Structure formats: structure tokens, C-alpha cells
Amino acid sequence: MSTVARSLRPFASRVLSQKAPLSFSVRRVSPALGFPRGTIRSFSQSPFLEVKKYTESHEWIELAEDGKTAKIGITEYAAKSLGDVVYVELPAADQEVSAGEPVGAVESVKSASDVLSPVSGKVVQGNSILEDKAKFINESPEGEAWIAEIEVSDAAELDGLLDEAAYKETIDEDH
Description:
- The chain is of the alpha+beta class.
- The protein has helices at 3-17, 76-82, 129-132, 136-139, 164-174; strands spanning 52-54, 59-63, 69-74, 85-89, 96-97, 102-108, 112-116, 121-126, 148-152.
- Helix content is 23%, strand content 25%.
């Protein structure tokens, strides 16, 4: 469940549990009047909160809530194109990478492909699950089968990447 949904659920529950006034006239009343004092929270969302972006070379990056670390992996489209993955080369911890440089590689029965870092940063860790179970990438390419976690040098680099809709358009153009 997304962070936004988790944070809105208590608010929505309180709103829905409020009883409607018995009078038939329509009145504009501040929603704050129906809540006990001090329970209203304003909701704001950081533009960097769990941002997932894509590259034209079929990598994804998801910035964590802390705004400093991000996970990098290959897209579902890339995983399907590669076929059965047999080996994943993971990056070494503390490796410095620049945007567009390889941060790992994926080999399948069909081919091999470098995984390029969408942004600059320092590798925190590789996904150790993939050392023993490379084909996990085919099962969850945009989920738990991420390839590297990095400490992002400049979160503004994410602005130059594609959002999900723009990425899907590039896939449709490829067909």
C-alpha cells in the first residue's frame, strides 16, 4: 500500500464516520468543525517521496522516503525481452557511479546487458538475493528484484528521467 493511501485512510475513515446534519438546508461548514481540536493534520508530499522514474534503456530508479538513497533495477519490459535470467553481476559496495555508467549486468539464455545507473552516486549495496537466485529478476523485476541500492549524489538528476506514462509511450513506439 502506498504511503499516501496509508496516510489518507485514517482521515477518510473519520470523514466517512461523521454523521450528516439532520436539517435539510445546505450549509457550508468548515470540515475542521466536525473534528476534535488538534486532530487535523495537513498533508503535504515531498516531490521526492518514493519517486519512481525510468530510462529509455529500460532501467528504473526509485528514490526512498529519505530522499538520499534509491534502488535501481530493470523494467518488466527488459526482463521479458531478456528471457530467463541466469546470472546477475552486482556492483561492489562503495563503488562510485555516474549517470549512464554500468552499475551491474544481467545475463540470460538469449543475451547479456549492462544495467546503467540513471543517476550519479555511491553504491550502498547490491541485492544479495540475486546472487543465488538470478531468475528472481523475471519474477519481480520492478519490485524486490532490484539490482543496486545507491546513495544519490544529486536528486535533481531524476528530473531528466521519464515518468511511467512517458516510459510506456517509448515501449509502444518500439513495437
